[in-house]
Design goal:
This protein has 20 helices and two strands. It is an all-alpha fold. Helix 2 packs across helix 3.
Length: 443
């Protein structure tokens, strides 16, 4: 079929769909691009299977529940007036709706266990982030990567300084000691999540201050969880701020004075397969290097993919495929992943236990200080303040990879994932180093 014939065929289909839409106006109400009645059928089958104990095990059952309930919660959250405007919309409802189902026992324990295994040992989170890092970097304009360069670490430093300064001030005002405010609250929040932040940080605290690592974990986790909530909420508010003051935002572009039009992609299933292979391979290489050099695989991925993009050593068909695969994953599995994050990584009981006014104010100080520091220093080096505050600020103050997905989803800037991962991984490593230097000053 000629290109002209293809174009005519597509145009005819679009006109046909428009006529169907006019004849069936209710067809517009959809969830997950499915008419709501049919989505209800899929949801009913899923819930019946889940509550009768007949849900398939492993990936099939877990992903089915995550997609159905994640999309449902996300759809509701994106339409609740206050929630969608000020609390992160579907992202926060998907996470905390799932966490509440676990907390209240509404989600059967077998499903919780299966989903947790799928997210953690099954590697679904890594699978998702590998697609986003590879596709978003390979789909970027290489000149932007060169232009950003090492300047990105200045707003990261600004986020750390702003967070520590404001946390120390608010902590002292509400009755915490400087040691409690900085070491127990600010440092774990800025430390890159559980695996790369709180867990190794508890080891550092144990070696320098005494007590078992589990003692410090119980202190660090509430700060981490509550900080993640504030990061998601403030990400949504920053998106609204950008709409009100357009000069503060690049609408997903980090750097000022460098405008370019994103290329229009003609989706190709075979290219997407090559993009999937590229994402898996880059993650594997990052894991191999991470086994030898003490740095997170994501950090190696970012460096390797960026180098491949700048040097143009990868065929264009692969870079196009990686970009297409990333967009497929981000479009179809984000709410599913957020639901899985709520089940596997969010302890609602721990969050509720930490909800004292003094604690809430101090945690808010960490996240808000990170926004201010990252936004100001980002502006000084030529970045858009809102994008700088989101990536170098909020993505330092959330729960690592899971938090990055939630924050970027709430701010509607998933294309910033490479910079978010730099903040979470390399910034998190910087926090561990800083914790080791600061602890002796408080002893």
């Amino acid at each position: 079929m000629s290109e002209l014939a293809k174009d005519y065929s597509v145009e005819t289909e679009v006109k046909s769909d428009a006529k169907v839409q006019q004849l069936h106006p209710n067809k517009g109400l959809q969830i997950f691009n499915i008419p709501i009645v049919w989505f209800g059928v899929f949801a009913a089958i899923t819930l019946i299977s889940m509550y009768t104990g007949n849900l398939p095990g492993g990936m099939i059952g877990s992903l089915l529940v995550m997609i159905v309930l994640g999309e449902l919660f996300g759809w509701v959250g994106d339409r609740l007036p206050i929630v969608k405007s000020f609390l992160g919309g579907g992202a926060i409802i998907a996470i905390f709706g799932a966490a509440y189902m676990v907390y209240s026992g509404l989600l059967p324990e077998t499903i919780t266990t299966s989903m947790t295994d799928f997210m953690r040992s099954g590697g679904f989170l890594n699978f998702y982030i590998a697609a986003l890092i590879t596709g978003s970097i390979l789909g970027m304009n290489s000149k932007i990567l060169v232009k950003v360069g090492l300047r990105y670490f200045l707003p990261i430093g600004g986020a750390i300084i702003g967070a520590i300064a404001l946390t120390g001030l608010i902590g002292l005002l509400v009755g915490f000691t400087l040691q409690e405010a900085v070491l127990v609250i600010a440092m774990p929040i800025m430390g890159g999540g559980m695996g790369a932040g709180a867990v190794p940080m508890s080891q550092v605290y144990s070696e320098l201050l005494g007590n078992e690592p589990s003692y410090y974990i119980s202190m660090l986790v509430p700060a981490l969880a509550l900080g993640n909530v504030f990061a998601i909420v403030l990400a949504s508010l920053l998106d609204r701020l950008g709409k009100k003051f357009p000069s503060l935002t690049g609408n997903g572009q980090l750097i000022q004075g460098f405008n370019y039009e994103k290329p229009k992609l003609n989706y190709d299933i075979q290219k997407m397969g090559a993009g999937l292979l590229a994402a898996l391979t880059f993650f594997t290489v990052g894991s191999l290097l991470g086994a030898v050099i003490p740095l997170h695989p994501y950090a190696f991925m970012i460096i390797l993919v960026a180098a491949a993009k700048i040097t143009s050593i990868i065929p264009e068909s692969v870079t196009d495929g990686a970009s297409q695969w990333y967009q497929f994953v981000a479009k179809n599995w984000t709410f599913a992943l957020l639901f899985g994050i709520g089940v596997a990584y969010t302890d609602l009981g721990t969050v509720l236990e930490a909800l004292t006014l003094q604690y809430i104010l101090t945690v808010f100080g960490v996240v808000f200080g990170a926004i201010i520091g990252a936004g100001l220093l980002g502006k000084l080096v030529g970045f858009y303040p809102i994008e700088s505050a989101i990536t170098a600020g909020l993505c330092m103050a959330n729960m690592g990879g899971t938090g990055d997905v939630a924050v970027l989803s709430a701010s509607k800037r998933m294309e910033l994932m490479p910079f978010a991962q730099i903040s979470s991984r390399l910034g998190g490593a910087l926090i561990l180093l800083l914790a080791g230097l600061l602890i002796p000053l408080f002893v």
